Amino acid sequence: MRVSSSPGAWLAAWWVRSYTRTATESEGADRRAEVLADLHDELLDARNRRLRSGLASRSILGRALRGVPADLVWRLQLERQPGRLEWHLAHPGSLLAALFVLLVPASMVADAARGPAPGLGPVGGTLSALAVLLSAGIVVVAGVALVRRILARSVRLRWGATSVRRAALSAMAVLWAGALLWRFADGPLESLAALSWAGFGLALVVYVLAVTAGLARTVFIDIRKVSS
Amino acid sequence: MAFRKLGTLLPLERRVLELAVRHAPAGVYGFALAQELADQQGATRLVSHGTLYKALDRMRRAGLLAADWEDADAAADEGRPRRRIYVVTAEGNRALQAAVLGDADPRLGAAPA
Known about the structure:
By secondary structure, chain A is mainly alpha-helical. In chain A, 80% of the residues lie in helices and 0% in strands. Chain A has nine helices and no strands. Chain B has 113 residues and is mostly helical. Chain B contains six helices and three strands. The longest helix of chain B has 15 residues, at 90-104. Helix content of chain B is 55%, strand content 11%. Chain A binds chain B through residues 1, 12, 16, 27, 30-31, 33-38, 40-42, 44-45, 59, 62-71, 73-74, and chain B through 1, 29-32, 34-35, 45-54, 57, 69, 79-84.
């Protein structure tokens, strides 16, 4: 019984891998293995009861979606363990991605409140402040991580699709945050915002290409497995 | 998120302990728990992955349950991934008995006069 045979199970497996990938090693591996075994058991149970595959897929997807808040709380609780800040500064990709996921909607709603949707009023002000805080956080985390790597002489370039995708996502986060911060500046610094947006566009193109390459590789491997 | 007094069990934790006691000493795994929890309540939907495994993790850390991975070869023979088996501990038994006694003694739940 393969998890990839059901779209719901595939998405649930993707989600558990996403939120456990950078968790502490033993807890992350245990949660992944436990949920993957659960997905397998539910698919097998549906097959034994001769349920339609769509029903099992929907049930699994519903269980995964309803559990997202608990998953996020569990993941945040793991971050209280000692040494996590140090780990994130050594591997800043996931923290930058998490801050970026919060920053994008916050800054977009804040912008809408200033422009086409002024009725958002105080919400817009709060979100603007949040967006600036998140942007500053992204720039500080990326800056500290980069300086530490340079000082430790551990700057290495990797060219695999996954490494390029993660690097492009980190660059997108930093450039979006930079554009948001620089636009409040006057004079020559103001043009940095435009440069940041241009850089963001470039990073986005690289990200899409890396995702496409990763998907193509997965499909190619699946086809080879089936044909052999 | 549920808040509770220290030392008390959440409804889900209590139901999990009851099922773990019923399955002792062999223990019970995640999906079987989800199914039996749904059967108990006559629910059509299974408990979410996040809620179930977060509760199991919390109960394991609190010493109410012990968790162990089943033998890899046994799982491979059946062509499935390994399951994590949960067994109720002495502490879990005590917590469940305390909860049952709390239900039986109306003074524990009574408001002050």
